[in-house]
Amino acid sequence: MKKCVCQSCGMPLHKPDMYGTGADGSHIEEYCVYCYRNGQFTQEVTMEEMLRLCANFVEPHSRDYYLASMRMQYPHLKRWARKEDTQHQYYKSINRVLEYIRQNLSQQADLKTLAAIAHISPFHFHRIFRSIIGESLAGYVQRLRLEFVARQLQESALSLGELALRTAYSSEQALSRAFKKYFGIPPKAFKVSFYHEKFHGAIVPRICRVAARNVIFLRQPAEGSAQWQKLYTYGLMKRLLSDSTESIEVICGGVFLPSLSTREPQAENPHVLAAVLPEGRYAIFTHKGDPARLKELYKAIFDYWLPAGNYSLAASEPYIVYLSHPATVAPENRLAEIYIPLAEKSSRPIEK
């Protein structure tokens, strides 16, 4: 007797009563009776769904081997070879949906809209989506939104309320509950733990009253270290340098401007501009290590420390004071202080 396998599930067909049946009751030798009956397939499934369905009838210790071997065989079976183009279209359709979801996290994921984008009927959309992506539509959308929120908590100063709007949550509280359920930690604690880990401890400044500083800048900025060299050359020629001279970067509109402090106010001339960094209350953050990471700490102050604290910014500019000379101190041991001007008083003690 001729032996063959079902062109749907791969089951060996040893005898006629295992064959599928046509609409007229005749034997269909290409398919088994479990897959094909009365002239049609008994289940509308994808190839992967059929694989996993059949794997349920295999001993647990053999399932991985079975799945690996059948994944090689199934694409050559008539049913799935015929549907190869259809499967390819499904993947293209679902990819369009994924891109739409990524671009519209602030919108509710409407089933009819997504099914229309995929050109798949709403009735079949959920099943095909889960088969290809491996998770439900609702689970995928929620995961994408919460992972977006986690990235923004690390990389931006957006509030939880703003993030709720951007991810279609009804309120800050709803987002917070969903975030805690998914990550096991509230969003605010998540942000704190991220910065503590990144900077090897809490970002805790000194709150001090600071005297005014006179500074000079180059009128024509130079590139990189040349700017510092020209500043120091000018200070040396004009006898402005002393033991109290400080290397300072004033942060103006996101631009870090090298400057030198001087004991007395200086008149402007064709070479330099002069300014006064005002007296006032400042939060002073100490940074030890590679100066290249100073901007990361500065960003963390605005993304995490200021939104979480009881302070607001004064109208003056923040600045950095470099405490170590780069020619004599290794990068990992260099010290610098970031000065953030504060406008709002607090009950916290102020150092004199």
Q: Explain this structure to me?
A:
With 352 residues, the protein is of the alpha+beta class. The protein folds into 4 domains: 79 residues, no CATH class; 51 residues; 59 residues, Orthogonal Bundle (Arc Repressor Mutant, subunit A); 136 residues, Alpha-Beta Barrel (Multidrug-efflux Transporter 1 Regulator Bmrr, Chain A). Helices cover 41% and strands 19% of the residues. It has an 8-stranded antiparallel sheet with strand order 7-12-14-13-9-10-8-11, covered by helices on one side. A hairpin with a 2-residue loop joins strand 5 and strand 6. The C terminus is likely disordered.
Question: Quick gist of this model?
Answer:
By secondary structure, the protein is an alpha+beta fold. The chain has helices spanning 47-55, 63-73, 78-82, 84-103, 111-118, 122-133, 137-155, 160-166, 172-183, 187-198, 225-237, 294-308; strands at 4-5, 12-13, 19-21, 27-32, 36-37, 40-41, 206-210, 213-218, 247-252, 255-262, 272-277, 280-288, 319-322, 335-341. The protein has an eight-stranded antiparallel β-sheet, covered by helices on one side. A two-stranded antiparallel ribbon has the order 1-2.
